[in-house]
Each structure stands twice: as structure tokens, then as C-alpha cells.
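Incident log, entry 3
Record: Coenzyme A biosynthesis bifunctional protein CoaBC (406 residues)
Problem: checksum mismatch between cached and fresh output.
Input:
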Amino acid sequence: MTSRKPRVVLGVGAGIAAYKVCELLRRLTESGHDVRVVPTADALRFVGEPTWAALSGHPVSAQVWDDVPAVPHVRLGQDADLVLVAPATADLLARAAHGLADDLLTNTLLTAHCPVVFAPAMHTEMWEHPATRANVETLRSRGAVVVEPASGRLTGKDTGPGRLPDPGELFEVARRVLARGAGDADLAGRHVVVSAGGTREPIDPVRFIGNRSSGLQGYALARTAVARGARVTLVAANVALPDPAGARVVPVGSAEQLRAAVLAAAEEADAVVMAAAVADFRPAGYRDSKIKKTEGSGPEPIALVQNADILAELGRTRRPEQVIVGFAAETDDVLANGRAKLARKGSDLLVVNQVGEDLAFGRPDNAAVVLGADGSETEVPRGAKEALADVVWDLVAARLKPAAPG
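Fresh output:
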């Protein structure tokens, strides 16, 4: 017996970014989702009905008056497993926040019992206007996931926040929200900071001291937090991965740069998860020109100095209500070393995992034990890094104090 395909309503607002949503639709249908496209009437000025119908395999309408016996203005929302709106224009966000129902899409939003995700796209001034920000907060307060837009080139010569995130990354948000189901935006209203990747400590203009971290686990943590409603700051050290939709990405190189970025973002964060592999040492001096090989003699020793312990610093300077999570990559005596590190660092949780050849670094899977300062131990069997990310956020959410009423 085959299981039912997940039903997705893909709402399309009237923005130039509608053309990018064709790629999002293709990803959804090719991965086994049953997608009904519901555009606004003006959205069809950007991408026509035949395109949406051909890509989805379903008829497309923006009107409540088409196929009236099937009551589409009620049934679409009632039957959906997810409603995803992209691009969500300023006008569409306003109508959704105020409960207007003047077309098929806004009717669908009012009848949906499932998770709802909005992916805004508009000019920077529109996104930053107090009216739009208030509408976004209203929608989030009702449990909707409103993905922060990306920064970049907009229409014309304008550049700034308001760009629709990459369709592949929006697909990942949709996939994560579908996996968790309704009522699980448990990080809504929270600001979380995640570090990812591996720092590089320069020796000269060519060489550096680094490590094998790919950033995959940190990016999984960021994506999962976005899907659970959080505002995410991702401090990324030398990561060659697309920016997760909805996360503000701060690129860094060295341990000192990562420290400065994390401490700045942590000042008003509810939780900080230090998933980056930070170099313990850096060269004591930097050579302005490439170190040359000298025939007949070995290389000069490179003197090292210790980098700041960022996790311990976070533990010392934290606010009382802040949740701090560290990662411990160990090669032997994994749990013993992890327990000792947890005691030293002052964090609430420590994710301990074994690393080495074909373990953790650069792989899509991971296994870990999450140690708690309260003496708890949560074993996470080997599986997708997103599964470990969800366990970490489950444990973080359980330790967060209730959010203050808005």
C-alpha cells in the first residue's frame, strides 16, 4: 500500500521573484509532493497559468468562482499539509495578517489547519517599513513561519534585504516544516546564534592552519531553527554551502573573527550553539610574503599561541536566561573527555561526537551524545545531521524560559 503524497498549496504573490518559484515548484513535485498552485490575480502577470499548470499537473485559478461545486476556497486549506507562500509581497502579508479573504489564496490561508510558511520578497524600504514589520510579527504570533528575506540585488539597481531566498533553500525549509507537522514553531520569537565551519589561522598569504569541518552540521542547525520559527544568525567560517533560507549569514575566517562575530550576536540572543570547529592555536606571527623553501635545510619552526576559548567565554558572560550549547569533537575517550569539557565550559548542553576518517566531518550523517549540565545524557543514533539538529533544538527549547508577551 502506497502512502499519500504530502499535499502542498503553493501560494504565489505578485512580485518579480515569482519566476524563481517555478524552480521551487519543480523541486517539490519531483520529490513526491502533490502541489496545487494558487496565485493571486496579479501574480499571473509575472508567470502565466499555463506554466503553473504544466509544472504542477493541476489546473490553476486565482478566483473563488472557478469549480464552485468543489468549494476550493475551503477545501484547499482544509486538505493541505503545508501552505507555502512565495513570494509573499508586502500587500499579501498585510492581507493575511488582517484576515482579509478577497481571493482564493487569502481564503485558503484562513481555512488552513496545517503549517503556513511565508517567504517575503520586496524592496528594502517595504520590508523595513513599520507596517510590514508589524504584520510579520502578527503572523508569527499566530504560529506562521515567516522566513527572513535574503540580501542582494533587487529590481533595477537597488540592493539590500528583500530578495527571495534561493529556491533550493526554500525547499529545505518546506521539507523540514512538513517533517515536523502542525503546531511546532516552538522557537517562534526567539533569536538563536549558530556557528559553523572551521576556522583558518593564516601563516602567510598562501598557507594556513585549519581543520576538516565542512559546516554541514551547523547549517543543518540553522535550517532547522528557521523551520521552527526562529530568527537565526549564522556565523560561518570558511563554508562553501548556499546560505540557508531565512538565516542572516556572517562570514568569518579566523578564530578571532569568529569570536568577535559570535559575541556581538550573542548579546541579544536567546540561545547560542557553537557548532564550528575553532582552532585551538594560531601562528604567533604572520609572514607578509610566502615562506620559501630553502634547499638543503628544513623549514623553520612555526611558533604557536593559544586562541581564546569562545565557548568558555560565552559561559562566563552569558545572561541568566540564555542557553549555551557547545560541541566536542573527540577521537578517543569520547564521553569522558566530553564530561570533563562540559564541567569546564559552563554551557548548558554539550554535543559530543566521535570524529576521524569518514566520521562526522564532511559527511551527511552524524551520531552523538548530548550531555546536559543537569546530568542528563541524550543519545542520538547515527542518522541525518538534521535529525541531530532537531534533538539539539528540542533540548534547547525545553530549557528556554517562556517568552515575554508581545
